[in-house]
Write the structure tokens for this entry.
Amino acid sequence: MNKNSYILPLYNRLEVGFVKGKKSVLYDEDGKNYIDFASGVGVNSLGYANKKIVKTIKKQASKIVHSSNIYQIKSQEKCAKRIVELSSYDMKCFFCNSGAEANESAIKLARKYGNTKFKNPKYKIITIKNSFHGRTIATLKATAQEDKHKYFAPYPDGFVYANDINEAINMIDDSTVAVMIELILGEGGILMQDIHQVKELEKVLKERKLLLIIDEVQTGVYRSGNFLLSQYFGIKPDIVTLAKGLASGIPIGVMISSLKDIFAFGDHGSTFGGNHLSTTVCNKVLNILEKYSNSGELSENIKYFNSCLQYIINKYPNIFLKKSGFGFMQGLVLKDEMLLNDIINLALKNGVLVLKSGKNIIRFLPPIIINKSEITEGFQRFEDILSKMNKI
Ligand SMILES: *Cc1c(COP(=O)(O)O)cnc(C)c1O
């Protein structure tokens, strides 16, 4: 920890800082290069210095970055239309700046729905153990990891936790308005929910006119190979939240919902949300990713990435238990959780960036546009450290 820093000591930073990047490769101050299997925790969907994105940012910055939501913003309208079309859901958008804000918006929308659409008002939201929904007071309370709640009480009422989807179904009562879930737990262990259980949950909620909120802040924007993982699950949520990969590094979040007439003027808003710069870049990112996905290249590269992970699992059964995850959101489950930080640090030293999830999982979130040669090189560097570990 740097005692002379003027920044509050909230992060356990690794000993490296990057000064530039190209595609899915990063460079530090000494010019050393790193294959990026982390993408800034799922943010840099197009990697680094993408020519089209650089051009889009420059062009838009030279015209107008921000006006305000009290004026018309054409790029925001266009972006909303793109997101809704790609989702294939009949929905409308609210733009904000982060995942937590998108989830906070979802909580507010669900509460207004619960407070206005039933004879006996409903407010309770059920979330799943080891979920992660953000760090604001409400989204922290929605995050079902009670060790994270220790210091910040009191919290708003109305959040309850289920161990799994089946338990969530059983916990629904007269004051429940919604169930909010990640289809793959991102921070909490790269655990994918069972499709049939999620569909059962959807059915039960629909029967009771209650809401299904899907937090796709990490799983969304083609990370799963589909624009939304909800589409792959074949469900129709009432609210979906997105953020991380939407504009490849420019801060943006969005809540999309089929509840089009619950919020009215003044109920909610954002100063920065959906400004000219973020929505113009988001439009470009979505155009590039849609083409990339339609070309078949994305699913091919996901397949290749998976085969590399499978090779690692097969070759190092003494280090790893199994693989978990889906698409470009993958985890290797360690036998010994004590190895987690060691492997991440050794990988960094050997020029490949990986993340952690939960207590014992190496998490892989590469840029969506990562190519075969980058994948090959990254796994070579990763395997290098494993083979050395095996010799110790
Ligand atoms: C990262 C994340 C969030 C929080 O997003 P911020 O932009 O850090 O507020 C919420 N939900 C999930 C699933 C996430 O992965």
About this structure: Residues 98-100, 103, 132-134, 182, 186, 215, 217-218, 243-244 surround pyridoxal-5'-phosphate (CB under 6 Å).
